[in-house]
Specification:
heterodimer, A: mainly alpha, elongated, B: mainly alpha
């Protein structure tokens, strides 16, 4: 039985809660919380409406479940593709070396140095509110693959010189089979931690864009909930439940993702250490 | 001689980053299925003014010229690069016609630099000091508390912290004004004190948001160094604990943190843009937002290009300052 550390446990339980809220609960919503005037307006939290209602007549709790669903969708799509592309580029660069590696490294450095948000603002403003979550995800993928690529490249570079790689090479394995059989399992645990971290970065960026009304404003995400709350002066009217709900949800979600990602990294480092001993 | 080579390769990367960044900025509007000229014309038409077809055509060509959308793609590209990088000019702003975009940027850039530089430096210093404390004796209770606090703060984005601060200190306990307002002659004592007072909350949200990362990474670095043999040796030799912490551990642990600073500037800039917009802080972020809301194409291209150049320049400056802190540096 492996012992899970406290960070991984706390983060995992919280994440599970978000998955339940975002993936399972939206199916049970008594009404479509995206449509306006489905419920009376501006009600504070009560038994009928756990987290109150908004100024356009949406139930905040059920709206939240849809928001969590869309935010998780953006995070997972971006993290999956960015990590896959990054791991592939890092392995190719680290193992093939020479001109390809120099070219890829330069590309990674450039994409890490160009700030992504201004480019996203440009894309979103030119599309004039017709931005879809997929467009935003695509831009986020373009800006997020270099981080894992850089890490995987340095892992690959350090592993190239290890004894077990030489053993494999001398016993007649080709570069491809060494990468797939020997290096990939090693990189895999690391990529999982990176995946969780990229989910966090992607959701944070999309929500940031959404808070200023530049994401897809018709889709409910955690950021657009805040945007509409600000637009309808929920703060001035002291309707804390409207803005407070997505704010607290984002804080909890990010802490959960961060704990899960660092907890998992510690966990796999520990397990490797024990195995070797 | 080695420094010259380092300088040369670092400068080459700098120009490459700007060039690729600007190339992306150039191609995004041209590849998206939206046409800023048609959009601008549509707004004029819908505002009620009737125009004859020749007038529309004349206006269309004026706009094409203003936006730099005339000629073939390679011609536009060369013109754009000439204007943006060499002449540093982005044409007139449409929302504030005929004020040139440059004048608007020149007015807001100092605000952004002031906010970002101050809060980034404060966050870096505070974060590293707390991280050093937490890492130097990492098994103490206070170390664990400090780290736990940083773990809680680090993943929260600046704009969420900004919202929490706004809720707390503008609405619940009304200390600060709802929107940014600074009057009086620039740089008069009254102007400066108003400006600082109004910048407290935006700065605080960046400081709190950014320092979490510095605490966590400094803690990890200094905890590792505190276990090195030369630290134990110094202790056996009778060197005082404050000296060990400051001279032995901190000086070594702080170096990677400087390199990290150069890498993180882009992320900090991203976060600061949204923070500015939420507070109505009169910097580059709010200017870009005005450009979006008013569909001011030239102003948008201008603010975004300057943002990319500013981030690349800041990273370059940090990288070039690095040798001052590390006497052992080898340039490769």
């Amino acid at each position: 039985m492996v012992k899970l550390n406290a960070r991984l446990k706390t983060g995992g339980v919280l994440l599970l809660l978000f998955v339940v809220v975002g993936v399972i609960l939206p199916r049970f919503s008594p009404y479509d919380p995206r449509s306006w005037n489905a419920v009376p307006r501006n009600l504070p939290p009560s038994q009928a409406h756990w987290l109150g209602t908004t100024s356009v007549g949406q139930d905040t709790f059920w709206l939240l479940t849809f928001a969590v669903q869309n935010s998780l969708f953006v995070g997972v799509v971006v993290a999956f593709f960015a990590t896959t592309i990054g791991v592939f580029a890092g392995l190719v660069g680290g193992f093939l070396g020479s001109a390809i590696d120099r070219g890829l490294t330069l590309l990674m450095d450039v994409f890490i140095s160009v700030p992504s948000l201004p480019i996203l603002i440009l894309v979103a403003s030119l599309l004039q509110g017709k931005t879809s979550l997929l467009t935003i995800s695509l831009v986020l993928i373009i800006f997020n693959w270099p981080w894992p690529a850089r890490q995987v490249r340095s892992i690959a570079l350090s592993m190239r010189e290890r004894d077990f790689i030489n053993t494999a090479r001398f016993s007649g394995s080709g570069t491809l089979s060494i990468v797939v059989r020997e290096i990939f399992p090693y990189v895999l645990t690391w990529s999982l931690a990176n995946f969780v971290n990229t989910v966090l970065v992607a959701i944070a960026t999309e929500s940031g864009l959404a808070v200023i009304g530049l994401s897809s404003v018709e889709q409910a995400t955690l950021g657009t909930m805040i945007y509409w709350g600000l637009q309808y002066q929920a703060l001035l009217a002291h309707r804390w439940w409207w803005i407070g709900t997505p704010v607290i949800a984002i804080i909890l979600l990010f802490i959960a993702l961060f704990l899960a990602s660092t907890g998992f990294a510690d966990f796999s480092a520990e397990r490797r250490g024990r195995k070797r001993a | 001689m080695r420094f010259a080579r380092y300088l040369f390769s670092r400068l080459a990367t700098y120009f490459l980053v700007i060039w690729i960044g600007m190339t992306i900025v150039f191609f995004v509007p041209r590849f998206l299925p939206s046409d800023p000229v048609t959009a601008a014309l549509g707004r004029v038409m819908s505002s009620g003014s009737t125009m004859r077809p020749e007038q529309v055509q004349a206006m269309r060509s004026t706009l094409m010229q203003l936006y730099g959308l005339e000629g073939t793609l390679p011609e536009q590209y060369v013109n754009f690069m000439k204007r943006a990088i060499f002449a540093g000019s982005f044409g007139p702003s449409l929302a504030f016609y005929p004020t040139p975009v440059n004048a608007l940027i020149a007015k807001s850039l100092p605000w952004t630099l002031f906010l970002l530089l101050t809060s980034t430096v404060i966050a870096w210093v505070i974060g590293n000091l707390i991280g050093l404390l937490a890492g130097y004796q990492s098994d103490k209770t206070y170390s664990k508390l400090l780290e736990g606090f940083a773990v809680f703060l680090y993943p929260i984005p600046y704009y969420i912290l900004a919202l929490v601060l706004i809720i707390l200190f503008v609405y619940v306990i009304p200390i600060f004004p709802v929107s940014f307002s600074v009057q009086g002659t620039p740089l008069s004592p009254e102007f400066i004190s108003r400006a600082i007072f109004n910048s407290v909350l935006p700065a605080l949200s960046i400081i709190v948001g950014a320092s979490g990362w510095w605490v966590l990474s400094m803690k990890a670095l200094s905890a590792g160094i505190a276990e090195e043999d030369y630290v134990s040796f110094a202790r056996l030799k009778g060197v005082g604990e404050p000296t060990i912490m400051g001279r032995y551990v901190m000086r070594n642990a702080v170096l990677p943190q400087i390199t990290q600073l150069a890498l993180n500037i882009g992320t900090i800039f991203n976060g600061a843009l949204i923070t500015e917009i939420l507070f109505g802080y009169p910097g580059l972020g709010t200017l870009a937002y005005t450009a979006v809301v008013q569909s001011d194409y030239n102003l948008l291209m201008g603010t975004i290009s300057i943002g990319i150049i500013a981030v690349a320049t800041a990273a370059l400056v940090v990288d070039l300052l690095y040798p001052l802190f590390d006497p052992r540096i080898e340039y490769r």
